[in-house]
Structure of RNA polymerase factor sigma-32:
Amino acid sequence: MSFKENLDKMPDIAHLSGLDIIDSEGRVAHHIPAAEGKLGSLKLYHALAQEFGNMLNRYAAEQGLAWFAEIVDDAKAHPGKHPNIDLLLKVQDEDLVYTLKPLAK
């Protein structure tokens, strides 16, 4: 399935103002705002939070990359162009663990 088809099956995010990705020391390592151009990533990361108990680890990253579908190849070809995919690749490569914290409006 395509990224758009995957997004269509994910829970609504109208109640969110964003999502924080928290490192092991409790710091915000990454933030995804509820802003134009970021809503697809927010929806995907929110779905990961629900599916994996708010944990972002190598297994959640693998699922996230599968959901990003065709965009992953572009992200690999152009590092920095898709930071939310870059983060998933880094989690996989470095076996990192983060906490996903959806932020209500």
